[in-house]
Amino acid sequence: MTPDWLSVRRADTPLILCMPHGGTDLAGLDDVYVSPWLARRDADWHIAALYDGLAEATVVSTAISRSVIDVNRDPSGASLYPGQATTELCPTTTFDGEPLYRGEGPGAAEIARRRAAFFDPYHAALAHEIARLRTRHERVVVYDCHSIRSVVPRLFAGLLPVYNIGTNAGTTCDPALSDAVATVCASSGRSYVVDGRFRGGWTTRHYGRPSEGVHAIQMEIAMRGYVRSDRSPTPDVWPPDYDATAATQSRATLANILSACLEFAR
């Protein structure tokens, strides 16, 4: 039985959309954090609304906040970006480096409990969907949906491009797929980069096996692409409301990207 925090919406096309960071449920741990607001602040706000209805695809998502456990991190605890600022499997700080916990962060036993409760079921569901679709299609695209504030000085310098494509230096998908996605981004007239600051998280790197017919790609979209403002995230203005008008251009571009993914897979 699928737990209520895990959503799997199935389609039979060769495209899977993953949404690992859209959740805000603190799993009953509200009191251990400095504040519930801070523990939810770095969510990929409105990611489901942004992609809603853009393509016929299987969607795997979790309602659990990334502050409880980040299902897009290496479960061993190894950093995906050695030498660069990042957050852990069970983050102890925000993106800006602020402490999340009132006291010490979770110990090894608590991290293992959260991994068994949330990380493992999420990835079991995702692996099952990949296997299911591979029986129907020669190629499957795993498209990992992310968003982030445009300015986070601790993580990257300056203003992040609107579209950030991650393929871990071309290892997680066929170049034809990343080229097709980049072409759509270029035609949007907005800034984009391939394998810049964000090169794909654990999901992209773990499942992307082009030689086995599984092509994984991450899209990290700067939130200014679909909200009125993503600066100064203080409790009185954050999270921002989803703005359908502001999102119109991004949704059109993302629809074309997903169409390119399906065309590649077929």
Write the layout of secondary structure elements.
Layout: E1 6-9, E2 15-19, H1 36-40, H2 47-51, E3 58-62, H3 108-134, E4 140-148, E5 163-166, H4 175-187, E6 192-194, H5 202-207, E7 214-222, H6 244-265
Parallel strand pairs: 2-3, 2-4, 4-7, 5-6
Antiparallel strand pairs: 1-3, 5-7
Can you tell me the residue ranges where pLDDT is under 50 for at least 5 consecutive residues? Answer: none
Count of extended strands: 7
Shape: globular
Q: Give helix % range.
A: 25-40%
- What is the alpha-carbon Rg in Å? 17 Å
Task: Calculate the mean pLDDT score and round it.
Answer: 96
Ends distance: 31 Å
The share of residues in extended strands comes to 5-15%
Describe the main β-sheet briefly: 7 strands, mixed
Classification by helices and strands: alpha/beta
Q: Which series of helices and strands comes N to C?
A: EEHHEHEEHEHEH
Individual helix count: 6
Largest sheet strand order:
1-3-2-4-7-5-6
Overview of the structural elements:
It is a single chain. The protein is of the alpha/beta class and about 270 residues long. The chain is built from 6 helices and 7 strands; from the N terminus they run ββααβαββαβαβα. It has helices at about 35-40, 45-50, 110-135, 175-185, 200-205, 245-265, and strands spanning about 5-10, 15-20, 60, 140-150, 165, 190-195, 215-220. A 7-stranded mixed sheet has the order 1-3-2-4-7-5-6, sandwiched between helices. α4 links the parallel β5 and β6. α4 packs antiparallel against α6. The chain is globular and about 50 Å long.
